[in-house]
Amino acid sequence: MARGRLFSGRGQSEVPDIINFADINSSWVDIQAGIVTSIRSGHVGPDYVEILNIPKNSVAVRPIARLSVQDRLVYDTLVFSIANLIDSELHESVYSARWSKKGKSFWSPVNSWVSMQKRGVAIINTAPFQLARTDITSFYEHIDVSTLGIDIESVGADRYIVERLITYLRMFQTSSHAWGIPQGPDASAILANLYLLPVDEFIRRSGMHYLRYSDDMMLFDTESETLRDALLEINSILRSRRLSMSSTKTGIYNHSQSLSQLEDLEKDAINYSIKIRESGATERLYKLFTESTEEPQRDRDVKFSLFRMGRLKDDRAIHWVIRNLKDSHHLASNLLHYLECFPERYTAVGRSYESTMRMAAGHKYDHLEQRVLQAATRQKISSKEIRDLAWDILNNKNKSNLPREFAARYLGRVSTVADGQLLRREFEDESNTNVRRALLVAMYEARSISRPLLKSLANSDSQLSWVSRYLLTDPLIPLPR
């Protein structure tokens, strides 16, 4: 299960890999044996964790934990082994990280979110309900590992699993400036559900209608005082578990305001009209897009619109996307995937990448730079200006590693003879394992790598042994997703 989640691409959207873990797949037998040995011996837990600041909006970020592949798979395997125990304790009002009835897969996150929104609309329409909404400040970061350990044991998890999970999480906290549990992996979402069981149980006993997706909670009642009392009690429960409500995201909304807190029903109508190819469907979609880009920008509607406009080959958003790549850098993945739907605009798209990289240079736009380099590599856009900027990123060791890795991959794809020689020099001077791995791939694609070097690394205990063995097979390396 853990392997399937890794190779299916789930979870790679925030921490993508330069070659989609093709080297891990080719050495899977050895890697699997190492994971089994780690779990059996109890030597679990990451020695090193890189924290990536992924944009939430144009200013704020959230810390995503980047684990090594083996550490990630150990963690997922331990948590997935008790996922069915946790899921059996959850009420039907919880929609996040739900395990399938057969215990072999997750519900689709997007479908689960949409289903929760629809359920909320249905509840509001049955009576003059008011809505209380809240979430938790820095939820994953403030989960107390000791309390979580007691929770895991209480659901009937084997002591063997409990001990290894707690050992893992304690090492996670001491291996970096992170705390709580790792943000990013599916496994953490399962543990987060377990941690909020006391809140779920309180609301279940109150008899209120209730919906929850991770820490996003919605309560429904006809009386605002009842909702206020419930929020105060929830706050008390959260504080007992070292958590606190977000003051800026907690509020009570009257009946007429409640629907606006949920997904707009217009989206359902647009989806249906597109499905049946109704006349005017594309105009309704474009209207939603233009309205969503007005101030204040509605990011969720922008993503909804661009995804569907791209599939419909509606190019009317191209100029807005090109103009706003930097200002809406937190939506970079969505904006860039939209542009990729129009290969006939190759030249204009390439120029937009150049200008975006140029504007981002010298500022803290690591995520945007990584995404643009990833897209330029995937689209095979060759640009001297992007190449020069990629060299600047690769040489800047003050940057986070992910954009440096994608800079190396891009350079390997568009390299000159001189670039290949300089990549070898960079490899010799680089200390970070992930960047060295990317440089090996770049040197291979630049035809500037020696087989003796690869053979030496392949036969070593180095973390570069997997990628070296893979490159020795003379593969056609996949483009990054």
UniProtKB/TrEMBL annotation:
Q: Name one Pfam family in it.
A: RVT_1
What's the protein here called?
Recombinase
| All copies of domain Reverse transcriptase, residue ranges | 35-274
Q: Which InterPro entries match?
A: GrpII_Intron_Splice-Mob/Def, RT_dom
